[in-house]
What does this fold into?
Amino acid sequence: MSSTMSRRGFLGLAIAGVTVAGLSACGGEGGGAAGAKKGGAELSKKLALPTFTAAKIPTPDLPIDAGQDPAYLKYPTELVKSVATPPGDGKKVTSLTQTWDVAPPAPGQSAYLQELNKALGAEWDMNIVVGDGYPDKFNAIIASDDLPDLVWFPPNQGLQRVPELLAAKFHDLTSYLSGDAIKKYPNLANLGDVAWKSAVTDGKLYGVAVAYSKFGQVFLVNQDYWQPVGGTNFTSADDFFEKTKQLLDVKKNKYPLEPSYVNHVHMFSHWYGAPNTWKLEGGKLTHQYETQEYFAALELAVKCFQANLFWPDPALATIKDKVANGQIGAYVESFPGFLNDAKTQKYNLGAIVPFAATPSSKPVYNAGLGSVGFTAISNKVDKARIETLLGVLNFMAAPFGTEEYQLVNFGVEGTHFTKKDGDLTFTDKGRTEVPTTQQPISFVIGSPSALFLPGQPERTKLIHEFETKVAPMLQQRVTTGHFSDTFTQKSGELSTLASDSIVDFVTGRKPLSEWKSFVKKYMDKGGAAMKAEYEASIAKG
Amino acid sequence: MVASTAAARAEVLVDTRPQRRTIRDRLKRDWTLLALCVPGVLYFVVFFYVPLLGNVIAFKDYAPFLGINGSPWVGLENFATLLEEPEFWSAVSNTLQITALQLLLYFPAPIALALLLNSLVGHRVKRFIQSVVYLPHFLSWVVVVAMFQQVIGGAGTVSGFLNTHGITIGNLMSNPDTFKLLVTAQVIWKDCGWGTIIFLAAITAIDMSHYEAAAIDGADWKRRLWHVTLPGIRSVVLMMLILRLGDILSVGFEQMVLQRDAVGAGAAEVIDTYVYYHGIRDGDWGMSTAAGLMKGLIGAALIYAANKLAHRFGEQGIYR
Amino acid sequence: MERPTIAGRTLKFLVLTAITVAVLYPFGLALGTSLMGRAESIANGGAYVLFPSKPTFEAYAVILSGGAVTRSVLISIGITLAGTALSLVCTVFLGYALSRRGMLGGKPILLMVLATFLFTPGMIPSYLMVKELGMIDTYQALIVPVLVNAFNVVVVRAFFQNLPDELFEAAKMDGCSEWRMLWRIAIPLSKAVIAVVGLFYAVSYWNTFFNAILYLNDQSMHPIQVVLRQFIFRGNAAAGSDVAIVRDLPASSVQMAVLVIALVPILLVYPFLQKYFTKGVLTGAIKG
It folds into this structure.
């Protein structure tokens, strides 16, 4: 009867459980949400990014010299106060955001929100869209011209004509944020270039970057599973294949690899040194699909599939239970997913550090986007109020180890959490109020990631060790901060084409001999246009 | 017999209705009926026809912030984008094959089940079975697919059992060749019981005296089924069939997306998933609206044709 | 009536048993899995189970704590009752009028209704209409925009049309108005189809999801399906989503507990409706 409704409803599940894994698999081909329909790309480069100034934070317990996230084994005793006075003007600050969690308590019943409002000197008021409904609601609200003060622009959710939309309905914040102007907002100045690049549109800054981990997808394992072959240190792709094969036990329903084929090809491509989506040489771009390295990774995945190493049924929602149970040995996660598993999973978690697939390979590790889009300020907001709103965002963006971060992420000591032996524990009140309210906040404004897992210093060390090992191999996407019209218009279609084809190749439904014709099709359908647009943009930069 | 006399009499009565009245007379006669239409018609105008005008964006390059008037015209470009892709046609072909299978295998299933339930003598058994068969309808597709995987999947109970006995069979859940049968089986399992409800209601509308008359004439159950029950629900069956034809180009979106990786896009791409992956996800409003319009027009044509055909066989169809 | 043959009865018995098992087994799985604890979920790799070794109401406790689910159940019951009643009235009225042969404008109106079965208005124009009518953040927004379903109108109309014409003609001779005929003849003889259509409406109101997230900004107004779905997101998601989510519940048992909770009202209501479509109503109706 109501096919539209059930479809929407379903998509939520698919995206939560299944599809997103596939989307992010494609390496998150993102270059930020922004893109230009009318040559905006040409303008993007003359802009001075907000000058990076490291915020004052408590000294981390582990080194940060290689670019690791600041890690704390115990909660810092001396917190920094990063914002002197409440930034708000006593009025409502409205925003449009989303959540994947259950609804937070109503503002009137949330001690957390009341405390936050007191500290902000404002009334933080969110219109929270449930899960996958965001693009629909976003577009409906845009069409009805009923914008809240702050609107989150997600990357990769099919939003079109973002540059024109921003110009028509939002404030240009360049003069407030660009270059040294950012110094007025020290916590925003602390977000870093990688994040800020994704907030550039048409050579202007229309929004505040929503900071997010700079590390990309991780190949995670249950270490116990790999014990019989001496762990997960491999010397080559062959070594990996042979050891993995030994661990296959069909009779006991044990399959070493999770059935996310595209994600596995991505992980394997690290070992062969394939580029992070694009390779830049002498001003010319090569797409990863055009490289020998990526093809080698695909071949390895095909070999694994033929050897029956993948769990036989794809689209599985209970992978973690199977990993915990020793039925699946390895799976692919986003970096925050890694942190989350480290916090919540009891199994012997580990991560495979990229290694050289062949003696001549140079292993790499692909960086993530460093942001989840940006938050723009509606031009219905009085110009005089822009600085107030930026001040509020500055407060919310405070890094780990500040009083503001503690309030935003943990609430009030005694009410929402208790401190004991350098660890934080949520109280019942904290558990119901804080995570459910903080998650939608985190899409409006984020802070640079830090490693702190209450009560689990050894897991913090595990993650830090992984970061230390992959830091030298970290490969940024060369197109970040550059824009391609074709990318915004076609990325969904192209990534479907790519993931469908890769799945077909891995599962043997298409012979590898057809790979070349797939690549040609990919380039013809938009890959080549993207390449030309990015090259032109890079040449200008 | 009774049925035929009743029908004959009905026809006579229809024919004796006064013809050639003036509009004013008819208005005077029908005003109660027209008043009864008002809430429904008002609803359709306000929440269907007015918003439906927005479908004009099928001919536009629509952007929500520009509004419908502000978005530029593009003629038939959106239709062209859709129709010139070979993948779209392969999705059409998959859709039609699946619908054909469903019409053949799924459509009769609830009718058969309803007849079977109706034939039960024991009242309590009847009630019990009736009140459980509709349950699977309320499982979401995610759960249905997971349950099928758990039983017949590559790591499911059946292959697990066979594996331990050294027999390997292919994975039934990831075989593109049998996929269309699999999805039909899933639909039958999920919705067959739910589908019986409307036919059971149709059976209750049969005049019991027909059964009594047939019993007196000494008709056995087969004859009663053939001469009383089936003719009694024929018009409802036909109506359901015609309505299904109007919806022929839509097949289980969720079901397909969930099983896409298992069998590949080649087997699981249907029109709705194609439009989703090639239009909706890239925010291409024009293209997805164009697809909806085309589907509607084809559905309208099919309903029109099927209805004509029904009239030819002396049936009411869904309109006359 | 004579009894069917032994072979026939055996066959029937076997077929019905098979069907009953095929539909009840998954519900056993759903119920069993909803009572499965985290440890057991891990021990069997997240598979659904019929009989959990240590049944626990953990999943239900988590979902029902905090009052959000209880509140949303009440909201959904209200929407379902009010919506179904309104929808039934409009549908029966329209279906009845269209079932009367020769009504002025009958065919154009019927075609207009049928067209709505084929096309769909866009999400944004519908949103703008709801907003224009001031229904954003009101419960009406979950009822009025889906008030009448063309399919149901067509079904109701078909059943009314199948009623013996003699009844109406006789009533007409007695000077009955159309209004009286609707209440005295059409509705009493069509309880079955009204029950069916009522069930269709009730189920669709109960399952309201997308309109709720589109039209209601205030999360405290959300109906049951939205709230339950959020628990599934919470238990299931994280995979590729942007923010780490606390995964404190076994995904499958939450999924199933959600299913069971959403199913309870339907299980409760069904027996009341069932009596309307188990036996014929037209016994000797013509004579009377």
Remarks:
- Chain B is about 70% helix and 0% strand.
- Residues 1-16 of chain B have pLDDT under 50 and may be disordered.
- Chain B touches chain C through 97 residues (CB under 8 Å).
